[in-house]
């Protein structure tokens, strides 16, 4: 995420609280421990607890008294239902994601770009019994890491890609050498040439994914469809077939979103 303007009073505290809120929502209904949240947010336990307690007082997060895990609060549902009227396109995407899962037999996903990350909004299971569980609703990845974020980043303007890589020199140390600037730029070029991204088990060994960008009316990649599965299901011949199917569904969804927002 971009750094907040430090000249704005309270900006740092708001940024820290927002970071914790995103981490809590990423944990889903299972919840997350104070230790894990503080570590992921790069905060001391006392600071994280103070901010989480403030968020809890406002109903934005909740804490299970038995497990002591933190999880999304009831106010998020109310806020989300209001924001959905403007931002939510999952209703438009749901049957397309389901069709993608049925036709490929793999797990299919719909993700949205949120600043420098992608957030999974929909997951639909395919019929193939062996599945990958790297991605589910609410999970976030930096752009360029998972197949959805790689597809989106590849079709952003060059100056946006340069700016993004400049903001995130930690990608290589956090996600491996394949996410260093040179290697990532090569994968972005390959994605543009192919039309869809390929993640050959770079997040979890043996778990492959492919992604295709979904565009808004102005031609900007704001969403992505993706498929994940086990490695042997993504051999060269089938990979090309999956890619064609994925692109067809992505084109269909882009057209539908553009038509709905006229």
From TrEMBL:
Keyword Transcription (UniProt): yes
IclR-ED domain boundaries: 75-259
HTH iclR-type domain ranges (all copies): 11-74
Superkingdom, natural source: Bacteria
Annotated InterPro entries: GAF-like_dom_sf (IPR029016), HTH_MetabolicPath_Reg (IPR050707), Tscrpt_reg_IclR_C (IPR014757), Tscrpt_reg_IclR_N (IPR005471), WH-like_DNA-bd_sf (IPR036388), WH_DNA-bd_sf (IPR036390)
Keywords of this entry: DNA-binding, Transcription, Transcription regulation
KW Transcription (keyword) present: yes
Protein name, entry field: IclR family transcriptional regulator
Lineage: Bacteria, Bacillati, Actinomycetota, Actinomycetes, Micrococcales
């Amino acid at each position: 995420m971009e750094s907040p303007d430090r000249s704005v009073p309270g900006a740092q505290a708001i940024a820290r609280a927002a970071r914790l809120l995103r981490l809590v929502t990423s944990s889903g209904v299972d919840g997350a421990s104070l230790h894990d949240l503080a570590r992921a947010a790069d905060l001391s336990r006392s600071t994280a607890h103070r901010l989480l307690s403030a968020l809890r007082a406002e109903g934005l997060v909740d804490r299970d008294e038995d497990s002591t895990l933190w999880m999304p609060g009831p106010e998020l549902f109310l806020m989300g239902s209001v924001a959905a009227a403007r931002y939510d396109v999952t209703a438009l995407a749901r049957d397309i994601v389901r069709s993608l899962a049925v036709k490929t037999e793999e797990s299919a996903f719909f993700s949205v770009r949120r600043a420098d990350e992608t957030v999974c909004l929909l997951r639909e299971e395919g019929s193939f019994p062996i599945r990958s569980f790297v991605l589910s609703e609410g999970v976030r990845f930096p752009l360029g890491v998972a197949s959805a974020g790689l597809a989106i980043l590849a079709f952003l303007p060059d100056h946006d890609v340069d700016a993004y890589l400049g903001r995130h020199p930690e990608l290589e140390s956090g996600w491996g050498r394949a996410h260093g600037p040179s290697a990532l730029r090569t994968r972005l070029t390959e994605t543009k040439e192919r039309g869809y991204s390929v993640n050959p088990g770079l997040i979890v060994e043996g778990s492959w994914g492919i992604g295709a960008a979904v565009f808004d009316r102005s031609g900007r990649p704001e969403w992505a469809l993706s498929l994940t599965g086990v490695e042997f299901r993504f051999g060269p011949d089938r990979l090309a077939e999956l890619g064609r199917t994925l692109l067809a569904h992505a084109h269909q969804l882009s057209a539908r979103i553009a038509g709905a927002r006229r």
